[in-house]
Amino acid sequence: MPFLGQDWRSPGWRWIKTEDGWKRCEPCSSELEDENNKLNNISHTIILNDGEDIYSAEDCEFASKKRKKDHFRNNAKSQCFYREKWIYVHKESTKERHGYCTLGEAFNRLDFSSAIQDIRRFNYVVKLLQLIAKSQLTSLSGAAQKNYFSILDKIVRKVLEDQYNPRLIKDLLQDLSSTLCNLIRSVGKSVLVGNIDIWICRLETILLWQQQLSNLQMTKQVNNGLTLSDLPLHMLNNILYRFSDGWDIITLGQVTPTLYMLSEDRQLWKKLCQYHFTEKQFCRHLILSEKGLIDWKLMYFALQKYYPIKEQYGDTLHFCRHCSILFWKDYHLALLLKDTGHPCTANDPDSCFMPVSPQHFIDLFKF
């Protein structure tokens, strides 16, 4: 007898109630944009740091012809990705559930595309993509890798339009391009999922993004009202003390001479070092100035090379220890409707929630 329906073990369709009755929710499709015209201006030969060519001219010529035919198969039906606010993290097979929740599955199902539009979650998603680029890129499935580059494309477009935190994206693209070059040179082409010409296109796209970000010009805001320079010194000083990243302090100090003077304050950098590092770590890497005093600014950047700094995010994913569910918490719904962000069965749901850092997100799926 032929099997005509869905697998009985599947979670089934999602339905919403409307005025016309119940309607089925269709999964959202995530399509990669066609950038053939832009990529034609980029050289088809990707060069390693030591000057070695990854691909020969014949490979690049073949990739160019292939790109003209179907770049990333844009004309075909693209891979569909669910946009869910929570997923169940199961690490073993049961009678009700078969298999495991992998990193690629979680990355596909959780709604990262909408998360990058939220300024509270933007840095969190970028940091997660950077960690995946450094060590977990090969563990993603082909669909997850395609979704990865789709989200990365949206991030780059947002930065080019809004000019929000381009330094963070530059670091991400640098790590991603270095990882791809090392994988192809040291490990071999077989470790990468998909046809090799697809990865040539992706490397060229990364190079294009890096060029666009390098040529990014910050638009000058025309405002006849109150500006940052009009604030009193104690308020400007309080703003600087709110930063947890030394590069943000240096960037703000380049705006005006007054801000530069405040950004060089020894007490400011001392507080920053004390926030991120311990006293034992100070003693191992003491740096003295010409006057014999501790140079806290140089200390901060020196310690940063040896020890991780504390991460701060406006919003993160949360994990429910009671339900083993990973979810985005909507604070507006939580306040208005007492919505926990997922169907929690605990008597006191808030006591079961724990924020999930980008590294913790990756560690959840290591078996």
UniProtKB/TrEMBL annotation:
InterPro entries for the chain: F-box-like_dom_sf (IPR036047), FBX25/32 (IPR040394)
CDD domains referenced in this protein's UniProt entry, alphabetically: F-box_FBXO25
Domain of life: Eukaryota
Compartment(s) of residence: Nucleus
Keyword presence, Nucleus: yes
Associated pathway: Protein modification; protein ubiquitination
SUPFAM superfamilies tied to this protein: F-box domain
Keywords associated with the record: Nucleus, Ubl conjugation pathway
Role noted for this protein: Substrate-recognition component of the SCF (SKP1-CUL1-F-box protein)-type E3 ubiquitin ligase complex. May play a role in accumulation of expanded polyglutamine (polyQ) protein huntingtin (HTT).
The name this protein goes by in its record: F-box only protein 25
Source organism phylogeny: Eukaryota, Metazoa, Chordata, Craniata, Vertebrata
Gene that encodes the chain: FBXO25
